[in-house]
Amino acid sequence: MNRMDTPPKLFDRKLLQSRRKRALAQGADDFLLERVAEDISERLQSVKRRFSLALDLGTPGTRIAQSIGGSGQVERLILAEPLVSHDGRWPRIVADEEALPFAEESFDLVVSALALQWTNDLPGALLQIRRALKPDGLFLAVLAGGETLTELRQCLAEAEAEIEGGLSPRVSPFIEVRIMGALLQRAGFALPVTDIDRLRIRYANMFDLFRDLRRMGATNVLTERSRRPMKRTMLARAAALYAQKFSGADGKLHATFDLLWVSGWAPSDNQQKPLRPGSAKARLADALGTTETSAGEKSRPDKA
Q1: Is the domain defined by 7-149+173-201+258-272 classed in CATH 3.40.50.150?
Q2: 25 has a pLDDT exceeding 90
């Protein structure tokens, strides 16, 4: 791979792991993972299939493992993550989402929760996941996406422009649903599906939101972040802007968290495939109750 093919290093992965480790040591706040764990279990139940060997890739902690590992739908579950953050109920492999150590066609199911948004090479990670799946294996994941923390992003940017006369990246960029769908197709997944579950979490003030982000290990890990601490005047101005622009009648602020759900299947011969052009056994015109017009011929209105 030459330099032109190397993806940019948007995120400081070592700093991310350090902050996750600190969050775990301080008692991580995982209210988002609690919500996601319930949803993953429900989505898997709708598949109506048993999975003999599943991989939980990069998910912080054991919420997902607790939800699906003992459900009876998953026979064996392996956790792959860079940190020791779970008990001994499930086998663990030290692995990074950007460099999977698994042979091709190893798993029937790969799940991941709130981890892949921090990868520097998301297309490459998706390709590795698809290769690690057996034919007709399922990939199900949720990432922070879209408008996540849009209120905080806007207020920090406006406050910094006023106080400092310039901007530096304070909140990570999050992927849009349409782009994620295209990446799934590019990675070779069959039947890709993406959707957004938007949550609005209410806070007494901006600093309570900061506290939650620290306890989730989800603070700024952008490579191009400013290394200087934010000035108190800037923080105060951002907090005032937040209260002014994004508070309800009761004075509480809201913060947006977009949960970007993605799923796709490793290709298999027994999956549904689109019909070949011209192979339909009924005419569309008959189904619509209209008159068929050949290519190049303009339709004519009926005479009265």
Answers
A1: yes
A2: no
